[in-house]
UniProtKB/TrEMBL annotation:
GO MF term list: beta-mannosidase activity
Example GO BP: glycoprotein catabolic process
Sequence ranges assigned to domain Beta-mannosidase-like galactose-binding in this UniProt record: 5-50
Pfam family, one: Glyco_hydro_2_N2
Top-rank lineage group of the source organism: Eukaryota
Cross-referenced InterPro entries: Beta-mannosidase-like_N2, Beta-mannosidase_GH2, Galactose-bd-like_sf
Key words, A-Z: Glycosidase, Hydrolase
Protein name per Swiss-Prot or TrEMBL: Beta-mannosidase-like galactose-binding domain-containing protein
Length: 69
């Protein structure tokens, strides 16, 4: 397992890594080049849901490679 951080929705992997002090500002200096690995890596977001609303969930803008179980 690689990097594990808490995530916020809405958000992005860059904002999640930054808020957890894994990376610095990606828009500062040449950090955009330094952090290219983020866009080239695979990321997994997970959340456990309990209760009746699981049947009624609607997902918008979900990646083309995802699974729900």
């Amino acid at each position: 397992m690689g990097i594990v951080v808490k995530s916020k929705v809405p958000g992005s992997i860059h904002s999640d890594l930054r808020s957890n002090n894994v990376i610095q500002d990606p828009y500062f200096g040449e950090n955009d080049v330094l952090y290219r690995w983020i866009g080239l890596d695979s990321w997994t977001f997970s959340k456990n849901f309990k209760g009746w609303f699981l049947r009624n969930m609607i997902f918008y803008y979900v990646s083309d490679t995802c699974s729900f179980s």
